[in-house]
């Protein structure tokens, strides 16, 4: 009624909404990235560090003491799998530390804070509770948004054009040559084509390529083997009679959009307030120029999901709601000596600018950073043939041996990486980038100390800092 309205206006006048004061505010933080980008490790370490707040100096609410306590709570979305925080943390911090199992589908975790707000509000209201709902989901699923605007014919043509020059696509090409798209659908043929196509997508991912739609072919979850995942791109035949392989694949592609893609965007994506996109930029650089170019393309696609008006259907679902902040983070920065972190961040910034040129995020704040959610290395400077090398040292994942490692020097000017990527060349001409996989280090954490990281606190400050003070 009038009183509530008047109160609402008054409260807005002092910079808060009614719900902030009368209810417990909820911030939904989306964590995404392509598979192996580091989502699981990121969430696990973020939560561990937020619970203890022992290593979060750049999160102002933690260092200023306005977070009085932090604790895990049952999430309100009871049908969404819970992010298995305890198991993942035990994997990382146990006696034989190992990396946890990666994200395969959507998962959620609720972390709640008792916060003492400053200023006038704080004086009136005293401590209050803020809930952080962390939503973990595969970036592959975001790429599917682009499918909503694409017909089966367009998607097939684009996918096959990309596969054309890839040597690992031989199996796919052979299978397609043997298939007649205008012939009557034969289920075993459809199944084989879908399997061959899935194998191709997996190979593409393994080679460092990012754009591998449809996302559920790589991470099917409970849909594995269902008709909605039993299709493949086909060259368009002259005739597409009713009941033909082409028509049936087209029907399944449309069902995938309707039954798989849309529900994900409606039920999960549309409710996100803040978003971090994790990117294994070092992995792509190691894989070569083509993988970087593909990453650039995938990042554009991923980020365009956050552009208001990008898709008419999505706009309708969002009702004007939008993600307020998007952080673009290069992960696994502990593979580099900190002297190179600025260069990695510059590459991320260049990729972000490139994506922003196409997608204006209208109101969303964006930033790029280099982080390591779980630091597995220490720095070491070695002298090799009269040259000093800034290395990192850690336990090798394969052999369990300790080794110091020099990954190669990233260029000072990120444009050089992007230009080489655009040129379509096979290998970097002037540099050699290597990558090593380290095992998580064995830790003895003091009480109240979170796991070691690089700039996780800075990332948290950007993403949620304003909601915790
Ligand atoms: P997800 O598929 O996005 O959930 O990726 P994960 O979080 O499972 O990470 C994939 C792999 O990347 C891990 O198994 C680790 O090998 C590596 N990784 C992730 N985060 C870090 C990090 O902060 N430092 C290092 N050195 N490796 C990491």
Automatic annotation (TrEMBL):
It comes from the Bacteria. Pfam families: DUF463. This is YcjX family protein. It comes from Actibacterium naphthalenivorans.
